Amino acid sequence: MTQTRAARLMDGTALARRIVEDTARRAAELTERTGTAPCLATVLVGEDPASVTYVRMKQNRCRKAGITSRHVALPATTTTDELVATLRELSADPGVHGILLQHPVGDHIDERAAFEAIAPEKDVDGVTFASFATMSFGLPGFVSCTPGGIVRLLDEYGVDPAGKRAVVVGRSAILGKPVGMLLLARDATVTYCHSRTRDLSAAVREADIVVAAVGRPRLIRGQDVKPGAVVIDAGYNPGNVGDVDFDSAVERASLITPVPGGVGPMTIATLLEQTVTAAGRQLGA
Ligand SMILES: Nc1nc2c(c(=O)[nH]1)N[C@@H](CN(C=O)c1ccc(C(=O)N[C@@H](CCC(=O)O)C(=O)O)cc1)CN2
What we know:
Blueprint (H helix, E strand, L loop, with lengths): L7 E2 L2 H23 L4 E7 L3 H16 L3 E7 L5 H13 L5 E4 L9 H6 L12 H8 L8 H12 L8 E5 L6 H10 L3 E5 L6 H6 L3 E4 L17 E4 L12 H4 L5 E2 L6 H20 L3
Parallel strand pairs: 1-9, 2-3, 2-4, 5-6, 5-7, 7-8, 8-9
The site of the ligand Nc1nc2c(c(=O)[nH]1)N[C@@H](CN(C=O)c1ccc(C(=O)N[C@@H](CCC(=O)O)C(=O)O)cc1)CN2 has 18 residues, from β4, α6 and α10.
Function: Catalyzes the oxidation of 5,10-methylenetetrahydrofolate to 5,10-methenyltetrahydrofolate and then the hydrolysis of 5,10-methenyltetrahydrofolate to 10-formyltetrahydrofolate.
Keywords: Amino-acid biosynthesis, Histidine biosynthesis, Hydrolase, Methionine biosynthesis, Multifunctional enzyme, NADP, One-carbon metabolism, Oxidoreductase, Purine biosynthesis
Pfam families: THF_DHG_CYH, THF_DHG_CYH_C
């Protein structure tokens, strides 16, 4: 008789719904107490269809949670200086409590310069150097949203990273690097893999926790997953395909995030939660 072992799914949709419900309660209390609703400014450069969809999802969720949103749509021809000026204006505007610059912004723009124009107290997407530093040192501040959401999922499913080998595949500024720092802060032994890693399969086979965050469809295959490992798929690829080959990985992992319904919803829930926190601090409540 053959025995099949399939991993438990980590349900990001359900956890995100609970976080958004709690955030909506906090937003209502804050609005009642201060007479001002929390406000998130979303900034989109160009009309990349995926980015348009993500920004719309964020605005819809804001509306449902009692957070107002102000949208700034800029043409694809926007220069770095123009984008920086827009973000500085929003940073100085007392009616805006959080700022989200949708990534990517286009190759002709210096994205880092743009991120750094966001005031740290309004950096609810956790993309500035200041947020990276506070997050890495476990100090008060805002975490990068997808990494923050991943750690919440691990907590929810009772996964303690302490002493575990965590392999992060990808080193982007808003995902790979910060998720590694959060896992390190939880005492995991963290290895980063990237395009110059010599033997990715060998590294992944050692991992108790794998975070796939590279944007390469189905790069991580079941045969490379250590039996019983926790597999987090943070890949966003066209057609809702993750970076993990789910069908093979689910047979080896103990816990795995699906795509869709895993990490994605947690990204937006974290953004909303941090927007209300930012508003509370700025409104002195
Ligand atoms: N400034 C930022 N830019 C980008 C981020 C980010 O966190 N900050 N992350 C990604 C894209 N992203 C948010 O912007 C995002 C992607 C996917 C989801 C999501 O909930 N996906 C669903 C499926 C959605 C669908 O049905 O199409 C899921 O996985 O279940 C949320 C946010 C890049 N840019």
